[in-house]
TrEMBL record:
UniProt xrefs under InterPro entries: Bact_transf (IPR003362)
GO MF terms, alphabetically ordered: phosphotransferase activity, for other substituted phosphate groups
Organism: Parvularcula marina
Keyword annotations of the record: Exopolysaccharide synthesis, Membrane, Transferase, Transmembrane, Transmembrane helix
Protein name: Sugar transferase
Lineage: superkingdom: Bacteria
Regions annotated as coiled coil: none
Length: 440
Protein backbone atom coordinates (compact mmCIF):
# COMPACT_ATOMS: atom_id res chain seq x y z
CA UNK A 1 0.00 0.00 0.00
CA UNK A 2 2.80 2.40 0.87
CA UNK A 3 4.56 1.57 -2.38
CA UNK A 4 1.39 2.29 -4.36
CA UNK A 5 0.94 5.62 -2.62
CA UNK A 6 4.56 6.51 -3.23
CA UNK A 7 4.12 5.78 -6.93
CA UNK A 8 0.93 7.83 -7.22
CA UNK A 9 2.38 10.80 -5.37
CA UNK A 10 5.59 10.60 -7.36
CA UNK A 11 3.55 10.83 -10.56
CA UNK A 12 1.62 13.77 -9.13
CA UNK A 13 4.69 15.69 -8.01
CA UNK A 14 7.11 14.91 -10.82
CA UNK A 15 5.16 14.43 -14.04
CA UNK A 16 5.63 17.74 -15.88
CA UNK A 17 4.12 16.30 -19.06
CA UNK A 18 0.87 15.34 -17.39
CA UNK A 19 -1.92 17.58 -18.74
CA UNK A 20 -3.59 17.73 -15.35
CA UNK A 21 -0.44 19.10 -13.79
CA UNK A 22 -0.21 21.74 -16.54
CA UNK A 23 -3.86 22.72 -16.05
CA UNK A 24 -3.38 22.90 -12.29
CA UNK A 25 -0.36 25.13 -12.64
CA UNK A 26 -2.25 27.42 -15.01
CA UNK A 27 -5.39 27.78 -12.90
CA UNK A 28 -3.35 28.05 -9.74
CA UNK A 29 -1.36 31.04 -10.95
CA UNK A 30 -2.49 34.44 -9.80
CA UNK A 31 -2.08 36.17 -13.15
CA UNK A 32 -4.32 33.67 -14.97
CA UNK A 33 -7.00 33.90 -12.31
CA UNK A 34 -6.97 37.70 -12.47
CA UNK A 35 -6.90 37.70 -16.27
CA UNK A 36 -9.93 35.41 -16.39
CA UNK A 37 -11.72 37.53 -13.80
CA UNK A 38 -11.02 40.65 -15.86
CA UNK A 39 -12.20 38.99 -19.06
CA UNK A 40 -15.38 37.38 -17.73
CA UNK A 41 -16.21 39.73 -14.89
CA UNK A 42 -15.46 43.13 -16.42
CA UNK A 43 -15.13 42.91 -20.19
CA UNK A 44 -17.85 40.34 -21.00
CA UNK A 45 -20.68 42.34 -19.38
CA UNK A 46 -19.55 45.40 -21.39
CA UNK A 47 -19.58 43.39 -24.63
CA UNK A 48 -23.03 42.06 -23.82
CA UNK A 49 -24.23 45.64 -23.32
CA UNK A 50 -22.78 46.81 -26.58
CA UNK A 51 -24.48 43.88 -28.34
CA UNK A 52 -27.78 45.06 -26.92
CA UNK A 53 -28.31 42.06 -24.68
CA UNK A 54 -28.28 44.23 -21.57
CA UNK A 55 -29.00 47.58 -23.16
CA UNK A 56 -26.55 49.79 -25.03
CA UNK A 57 -24.25 51.94 -22.89
CA UNK A 58 -21.94 54.39 -24.64
CA UNK A 59 -18.22 54.40 -23.62
CA UNK A 60 -18.39 58.13 -22.87
CA UNK A 61 -21.39 57.66 -20.57
CA UNK A 62 -20.60 58.45 -16.92
CA UNK A 63 -22.38 55.27 -15.85
CA UNK A 64 -20.17 53.29 -18.23
CA UNK A 65 -16.93 54.75 -16.89
CA UNK A 66 -17.92 54.48 -13.23
CA UNK A 67 -19.19 50.92 -13.66
CA UNK A 68 -15.98 49.89 -15.42
CA UNK A 69 -13.85 51.31 -12.62
CA UNK A 70 -16.13 49.96 -9.88
CA UNK A 71 -16.23 46.39 -11.17
CA UNK A 72 -12.47 46.41 -11.68
CA UNK A 73 -11.91 47.55 -8.09
CA UNK A 74 -14.41 44.91 -6.88
CA UNK A 75 -12.44 42.25 -8.78
CA UNK A 76 -9.12 43.21 -7.20
CA UNK A 77 -10.60 43.56 -3.70
CA UNK A 78 -12.53 40.29 -3.93
CA UNK A 79 -9.47 38.47 -5.26
CA UNK A 80 -7.32 39.75 -2.37
CA UNK A 81 -9.96 38.72 0.19
CA UNK A 82 -10.26 35.28 -1.43
CA UNK A 83 -6.52 34.61 -1.43
CA UNK A 84 -5.91 35.96 2.06
CA UNK A 85 -8.75 34.03 3.69
CA UNK A 86 -8.05 30.81 1.79
CA UNK A 87 -4.49 30.82 3.11
CA UNK A 88 -5.85 30.60 6.67
CA UNK A 89 -6.59 27.31 8.48
CA UNK A 90 -10.01 25.71 8.30
CA UNK A 91 -10.73 27.43 5.01
CA UNK A 92 -11.31 26.38 1.42
CA UNK A 93 -11.24 28.60 -1.63
CA UNK A 94 -14.46 27.07 -2.98
CA UNK A 95 -16.35 27.99 0.19
CA UNK A 96 -14.95 31.55 0.24
CA UNK A 97 -15.67 32.61 -3.36
CA UNK A 98 -19.22 33.89 -2.94
CA UNK A 99 -18.70 35.66 0.44
CA UNK A 100 -15.45 37.26 -0.80
CA UNK A 101 -17.13 38.90 -3.79
CA UNK A 102 -20.28 39.76 -1.84
CA UNK A 103 -18.01 41.70 0.50
CA UNK A 104 -15.99 43.35 -2.29
CA UNK A 105 -19.01 44.39 -4.36
CA UNK A 106 -20.80 45.48 -1.19
CA UNK A 107 -17.90 47.76 -0.26
CA UNK A 108 -17.70 49.28 -3.75
CA UNK A 109 -21.45 49.85 -3.97
CA UNK A 110 -21.45 51.40 -0.48
CA UNK A 111 -18.70 53.82 -1.60
CA UNK A 112 -20.61 54.69 -4.77
CA UNK A 113 -23.78 55.22 -2.74
CA UNK A 114 -22.00 57.31 -0.10
CA UNK A 115 -20.40 59.61 -2.69
CA UNK A 116 -23.56 59.61 -4.86
CA UNK A 117 -21.71 58.31 -7.91
CA UNK A 118 -23.72 57.11 -10.89
CA UNK A 119 -23.31 53.49 -11.92
CA UNK A 120 -25.17 50.81 -13.86
CA UNK A 121 -26.94 48.28 -11.65
CA UNK A 122 -27.18 45.85 -14.56
CA UNK A 123 -23.46 46.12 -15.21
CA UNK A 124 -22.65 45.46 -11.56
CA UNK A 125 -25.06 42.52 -11.35
CA UNK A 126 -23.78 40.89 -14.54
CA UNK A 127 -20.18 41.50 -13.50
CA UNK A 128 -20.81 39.94 -10.07
CA UNK A 129 -22.47 36.83 -11.54
CA UNK A 130 -19.79 36.32 -14.19
CA UNK A 131 -16.95 36.94 -11.75
CA UNK A 132 -18.28 34.50 -9.16
CA UNK A 133 -18.94 31.90 -11.85
CA UNK A 134 -15.38 32.22 -13.15
CA UNK A 135 -13.76 31.78 -9.77
CA UNK A 136 -16.05 28.88 -8.87
CA UNK A 137 -14.94 27.22 -12.12
CA UNK A 138 -11.28 27.86 -11.30
CA UNK A 139 -11.58 26.44 -7.79
CA UNK A 140 -13.57 23.46 -9.05
CA UNK A 141 -10.85 22.63 -11.59
CA UNK A 142 -8.13 22.94 -8.98
CA UNK A 143 -10.08 20.84 -6.46
CA UNK A 144 -10.55 18.02 -9.00
CA UNK A 145 -6.83 17.52 -9.53
CA UNK A 146 -5.29 18.83 -6.35
CA UNK A 147 -5.28 17.53 -2.78
CA UNK A 148 -2.63 18.58 -0.26
CA UNK A 149 -0.05 15.83 0.06
CA UNK A 150 2.90 15.50 2.43
CA UNK A 151 5.77 13.13 2.96
CA UNK A 152 5.95 12.20 6.63
CA UNK A 153 9.03 11.31 8.62
CA UNK A 154 7.56 9.07 11.32
CA UNK A 155 7.99 9.87 14.98
CA UNK A 156 6.58 12.24 17.58
CA UNK A 157 3.67 14.42 16.52
CA UNK A 158 4.15 13.47 12.86
CA UNK A 159 2.28 10.26 13.63
CA UNK A 160 -0.92 12.32 14.06
CA UNK A 161 -0.95 13.37 10.39
CA UNK A 162 -2.59 10.21 8.93
CA UNK A 163 -5.62 10.94 11.11
CA UNK A 164 -6.28 14.26 9.34
CA UNK A 165 -8.79 13.55 6.56
CA UNK A 166 -8.15 16.69 4.51
CA UNK A 167 -4.64 15.68 3.36
CA UNK A 168 -2.77 12.75 1.82
CA UNK A 169 0.17 11.44 3.82
CA UNK A 170 2.83 8.94 2.87
CA UNK A 171 5.41 7.76 5.34
CA UNK A 172 8.96 8.27 4.12
CA UNK A 173 10.90 5.22 5.29
CA UNK A 174 14.22 6.55 4.11
CA UNK A 175 16.00 9.45 2.47
CA UNK A 176 15.71 7.53 -0.79
CA UNK A 177 11.90 7.68 -0.54
CA UNK A 178 12.12 11.43 0.02
CA UNK A 179 14.31 11.79 -3.08
CA UNK A 180 11.79 9.88 -5.18
CA UNK A 181 9.15 12.44 -4.16
CA UNK A 182 11.29 15.49 -4.73
CA UNK A 183 8.30 17.77 -5.33
CA UNK A 184 6.47 16.74 -2.17
CA UNK A 185 6.70 18.79 1.06
CA UNK A 186 8.25 16.97 4.01
CA UNK A 187 6.86 16.96 7.54
CA UNK A 188 8.88 15.95 10.60
CA UNK A 189 8.76 16.45 14.33
CA UNK A 190 12.02 18.28 15.00
CA UNK A 191 11.91 17.27 18.67
CA UNK A 192 11.38 13.56 18.14
CA UNK A 193 15.05 12.60 18.03
CA UNK A 194 15.63 12.44 14.27
CA UNK A 195 18.66 10.54 13.06
CA UNK A 196 21.72 12.43 11.87
CA UNK A 197 20.98 11.44 8.27
CA UNK A 198 17.48 12.87 8.43
CA UNK A 199 18.61 16.09 10.14
CA UNK A 200 21.26 16.71 7.50
CA UNK A 201 18.87 15.84 4.67
CA UNK A 202 16.07 18.10 5.93
CA UNK A 203 18.47 20.97 6.41
CA UNK A 204 19.86 20.52 2.90
CA UNK A 205 16.38 20.31 1.35
CA UNK A 206 15.27 23.46 3.16
CA UNK A 207 18.33 25.29 1.84
CA UNK A 208 17.47 24.13 -1.67
CA UNK A 209 13.99 25.62 -1.36
CA UNK A 210 11.94 22.50 -0.66
CA UNK A 211 9.08 22.92 1.79
CA UNK A 212 9.97 21.35 5.15
CA UNK A 213 7.36 21.63 7.92
CA UNK A 214 7.55 21.15 11.66
CA UNK A 215 4.75 18.65 12.43
CA UNK A 216 3.40 20.65 15.36
CA UNK A 217 3.02 23.84 13.34
CA UNK A 218 1.43 22.04 10.38
CA UNK A 219 -1.10 20.17 12.52
CA UNK A 220 -1.95 23.37 14.34
CA UNK A 221 -2.57 25.14 11.03
CA UNK A 222 -4.64 22.32 9.53
CA UNK A 223 -6.85 21.90 12.59
CA UNK A 224 -7.02 25.57 13.55
CA UNK A 225 -6.33 25.08 17.25
CA UNK A 226 -3.42 25.05 19.70
CA UNK A 227 -2.85 21.84 21.68
CA UNK A 228 -2.95 22.58 25.39
CA UNK A 229 -0.66 19.69 26.25
CA UNK A 230 2.16 21.26 24.26
CA UNK A 231 1.42 24.88 25.08
CA UNK A 232 4.38 27.06 25.93
CA UNK A 233 5.67 30.56 25.42
CA UNK A 234 7.49 29.27 22.36
CA UNK A 235 4.28 27.99 20.74
CA UNK A 236 2.26 31.11 21.49
CA UNK A 237 5.04 33.60 20.88
CA UNK A 238 4.98 36.73 23.02
CA UNK A 239 1.29 37.50 22.34
CA UNK A 240 2.38 40.70 20.60
CA UNK A 241 -0.92 41.44 18.90
CA UNK A 242 -0.96 43.76 15.90
CA UNK A 243 -0.51 47.21 17.43
CA UNK A 244 -2.21 48.91 14.47
CA UNK A 245 -5.14 46.59 13.85
CA UNK A 246 -6.13 46.00 17.49
CA UNK A 247 -6.87 49.69 18.36
CA UNK A 248 -8.30 50.35 14.89
CA UNK A 249 -10.62 47.38 15.29
CA UNK A 250 -12.03 48.85 18.49
CA UNK A 251 -13.25 52.02 16.73
CA UNK A 252 -14.39 50.29 13.53
CA UNK A 253 -16.37 47.80 15.63
CA UNK A 254 -18.06 50.57 17.64
CA UNK A 255 -18.92 52.64 14.54
CA UNK A 256 -20.35 49.64 12.67
CA UNK A 257 -22.33 48.50 15.73
CA UNK A 258 -23.82 51.99 16.22
CA UNK A 259 -24.92 52.13 12.57
CA UNK A 260 -26.50 48.66 12.73
CA UNK A 261 -28.29 49.49 15.98
CA UNK A 262 -29.72 52.66 14.45
CA UNK A 263 -30.85 51.02 11.20
CA UNK A 264 -32.15 47.82 12.81
CA UNK A 265 -33.86 49.41 15.82
CA UNK A 266 -37.45 48.80 14.49
CA UNK A 267 -36.55 45.15 13.84
CA UNK A 268 -35.01 44.76 17.30
CA UNK A 269 -38.05 46.37 18.92
CA UNK A 270 -40.34 43.93 17.08
CA UNK A 271 -38.31 40.98 18.32
CA UNK A 272 -38.52 42.28 21.88
CA UNK A 273 -42.32 42.50 21.64
CA UNK A 274 -42.51 38.97 20.18
CA UNK A 275 -40.44 37.59 23.08
CA UNK A 276 -42.75 39.19 25.64
CA UNK A 277 -45.79 37.71 23.89
CA UNK A 278 -44.20 34.26 23.55
CA UNK A 279 -43.26 33.66 27.19
CA UNK A 280 -43.25 35.25 30.61
CA UNK A 281 -40.26 37.41 31.45
CA UNK A 282 -38.26 40.37 30.15
CA UNK A 283 -37.25 40.67 26.50
CA UNK A 284 -33.58 41.21 27.36
CA UNK A 285 -31.40 38.80 29.30
CA UNK A 286 -28.60 40.35 31.38
CA UNK A 287 -25.68 38.41 32.83
CA UNK A 288 -22.24 39.18 34.30
CA UNK A 289 -19.44 37.75 32.18
CA UNK A 290 -15.66 38.02 32.03
CA UNK A 291 -14.28 40.16 29.24
CA UNK A 292 -11.18 41.94 28.00
CA UNK A 293 -8.19 41.56 30.35
CA UNK A 294 -10.33 39.56 32.79
CA UNK A 295 -12.66 42.45 33.67
CA UNK A 296 -16.32 41.58 34.43
CA UNK A 297 -19.10 43.30 32.48
CA UNK A 298 -22.85 42.93 31.88
CA UNK A 299 -23.71 41.23 28.61
CA UNK A 300 -27.06 41.72 26.84
CA UNK A 301 -28.98 39.12 24.83
CA UNK A 302 -32.52 38.57 23.68
CA UNK A 303 -34.02 36.13 26.15
CA UNK A 304 -34.36 32.74 24.46
CA UNK A 305 -34.92 30.62 27.58
CA UNK A 306 -37.44 30.44 30.40
CA UNK A 307 -36.73 32.58 33.42
CA UNK A 308 -34.95 30.61 36.16
CA UNK A 309 -35.11 31.52 39.84
CA UNK A 310 -31.76 32.65 41.31
CA UNK A 311 -31.64 29.69 43.70
CA UNK A 312 -31.88 27.29 40.73
CA UNK A 313 -28.82 28.71 38.96
CA UNK A 314 -25.66 26.57 39.01
CA UNK A 315 -22.47 25.80 37.10
CA UNK A 316 -24.04 23.20 34.80
CA UNK A 317 -26.98 25.50 34.08
CA UNK A 318 -24.61 28.08 32.63
CA UNK A 319 -24.07 25.75 29.65
CA UNK A 320 -26.93 25.17 27.22
CA UNK A 321 -27.44 21.49 26.44
CA UNK A 322 -28.61 20.03 23.11
CA UNK A 323 -32.40 19.95 23.17
CA UNK A 324 -32.45 21.98 26.38
CA UNK A 325 -36.06 22.14 27.60
CA UNK A 326 -35.46 25.64 29.01
CA UNK A 327 -35.39 27.11 25.48
CA UNK A 328 -38.68 28.77 24.48
CA UNK A 329 -40.51 28.23 21.19
CA UNK A 330 -39.32 31.55 19.79
CA UNK A 331 -35.94 31.00 21.43
CA UNK A 332 -35.20 28.03 19.14
CA UNK A 333 -35.56 30.30 16.10
CA UNK A 334 -33.58 33.16 17.64
CA UNK A 335 -30.70 30.87 18.60
CA UNK A 336 -30.65 29.04 15.26
CA UNK A 337 -30.28 32.32 13.35
CA UNK A 338 -28.04 33.85 16.06
CA UNK A 339 -30.48 36.74 16.39
CA UNK A 340 -30.43 36.41 20.18
CA UNK A 341 -26.89 37.86 20.15
CA UNK A 342 -27.87 41.17 18.48
CA UNK A 343 -28.32 43.20 21.71
CA UNK A 344 -24.62 42.64 22.34
CA UNK A 345 -24.07 45.41 19.81
CA UNK A 346 -24.63 47.64 22.83
CA UNK A 347 -21.59 45.98 24.44
CA UNK A 348 -19.61 46.55 21.24
CA UNK A 349 -20.45 50.27 21.20
CA UNK A 350 -19.37 50.51 24.85
CA UNK A 351 -16.03 48.83 24.06
CA UNK A 352 -16.72 45.77 26.22
CA UNK A 353 -16.98 43.43 23.25
CA UNK A 354 -16.01 43.13 19.59
CA UNK A 355 -17.84 41.74 16.59
CA UNK A 356 -15.29 38.92 16.50
CA UNK A 357 -13.42 37.26 19.36
CA UNK A 358 -13.70 34.46 21.95
CA UNK A 359 -17.17 34.24 23.45
CA UNK A 360 -17.35 35.71 26.97
CA UNK A 361 -18.02 33.14 29.69
CA UNK A 362 -20.12 33.55 32.81
CA UNK A 363 -18.42 34.52 36.05
CA UNK A 364 -18.94 31.07 37.57
CA UNK A 365 -17.67 29.17 34.54
CA UNK A 366 -14.70 31.46 34.01
CA UNK A 367 -13.51 31.06 37.60
CA UNK A 368 -13.93 27.29 37.39
CA UNK A 369 -12.04 27.09 34.08
CA UNK A 370 -9.16 29.14 35.47
CA UNK A 371 -8.74 26.61 38.29
CA UNK A 372 -9.02 23.53 36.07
CA UNK A 373 -7.40 24.53 32.76
CA UNK A 374 -3.88 25.98 32.41
CA UNK A 375 -3.45 29.08 30.25
CA UNK A 376 -7.19 29.79 30.28
CA UNK A 377 -6.71 33.51 31.00
CA UNK A 378 -4.73 33.96 27.78
CA UNK A 379 -8.04 34.14 25.89
CA UNK A 380 -8.71 37.46 27.66
CA UNK A 381 -5.86 39.10 25.72
CA UNK A 382 -8.44 40.19 23.12
CA UNK A 383 -11.97 41.52 23.50
CA UNK A 384 -14.69 38.85 23.55
CA UNK A 385 -16.84 38.71 20.45
CA UNK A 386 -20.38 38.18 19.23
CA UNK A 387 -19.00 35.45 16.99
CA UNK A 388 -15.61 33.73 17.02
CA UNK A 389 -13.34 31.02 15.68
CA UNK A 390 -14.50 28.44 18.23
CA UNK A 391 -18.15 29.12 17.44
CA UNK A 392 -17.84 28.57 13.70
CA UNK A 393 -15.57 25.51 14.08
CA UNK A 394 -17.07 23.81 17.12
CA UNK A 395 -20.52 25.26 17.73
CA UNK A 396 -22.02 25.59 21.18
CA UNK A 397 -20.26 23.95 24.11
CA UNK A 398 -22.65 21.51 25.78
CA UNK A 399 -20.43 19.88 28.40
CA UNK A 400 -17.41 20.60 30.53
CA UNK A 401 -15.43 18.13 28.41
CA UNK A 402 -15.89 20.38 25.35
CA UNK A 403 -14.30 23.36 27.06
CA UNK A 404 -10.70 22.28 26.50
CA UNK A 405 -11.27 21.98 22.75
CA UNK A 406 -13.00 25.35 22.71
CA UNK A 407 -10.01 26.88 24.47
CA UNK A 408 -7.69 25.42 21.84
CA UNK A 409 -9.63 27.28 19.14
CA UNK A 410 -9.68 30.48 21.21
CA UNK A 411 -5.91 30.37 21.75
CA UNK A 412 -5.38 29.80 18.05
CA UNK A 413 -7.39 32.96 17.36
CA UNK A 414 -5.33 34.95 19.85
CA UNK A 415 -2.10 33.64 18.35
CA UNK A 416 -3.15 34.41 14.75
CA UNK A 417 -5.04 37.64 15.45
CA UNK A 418 -5.30 39.61 12.19
CA UNK A 419 -7.75 41.41 9.94
CA UNK A 420 -7.76 38.51 7.45
CA UNK A 421 -8.52 35.98 10.16
CA UNK A 422 -11.50 38.14 11.16
CA UNK A 423 -12.68 38.25 7.54
CA UNK A 424 -12.49 34.45 7.40
CA UNK A 425 -14.60 34.19 10.58
CA UNK A 426 -17.18 36.53 9.05
CA UNK A 427 -17.38 34.22 6.03
CA UNK A 428 -17.81 31.17 8.26
CA UNK A 429 -20.42 32.97 10.37
CA UNK A 430 -22.50 33.78 7.28
CA UNK A 431 -22.39 30.08 6.38
CA UNK A 432 -23.51 29.10 9.89
CA UNK A 433 -26.41 31.56 9.79
CA UNK A 434 -27.55 30.28 6.39
CA UNK A 435 -27.18 26.57 7.14
CA UNK A 436 -27.69 26.47 10.91
CA UNK A 437 -24.56 24.36 11.30
CA UNK A 438 -23.06 24.88 14.73
CA UNK A 439 -26.11 26.67 16.13
CA UNK A 440 -28.16 25.12 18.90
Amino acid sequence: MIAQNLTLLAERSQAPGNWRVRVLRSFGRMRYQLLGGLLFGVICPILLRNQGLLGVLAPNDVNYQNSLLGTFVALILGFVILRKTTALPGSTAFMNVLPAFVISFGIVIAIFYGFRLNYSRYQFLASFLFMVSWFYFVMMMIARIQRPAFGMVAGGQSNQLPGISSIDVVELKSVADADRLAGLPIVADFRSGLSGDWERYLAEQAVRGRLVFNARHLIESLEGKVELEHLSENSLGQLSLDQIYRPAKRYVDALAAAIVLLVASPFLFAIGVAIRLDSTGPALFRQTRIGFRGEPFTVYKFRSMKVVAPEEENLTGDMTQSGDDRITRLGHILRKLRIDELPQLINVVRGEMSWIGPRPETLRLSRWYEQEIPFYRIRHAVRPGITGWAQVCQGHVTSVDDVREKLQYDLFYVKNFSVWFDVLIVIHTIRVMLTGKGAK
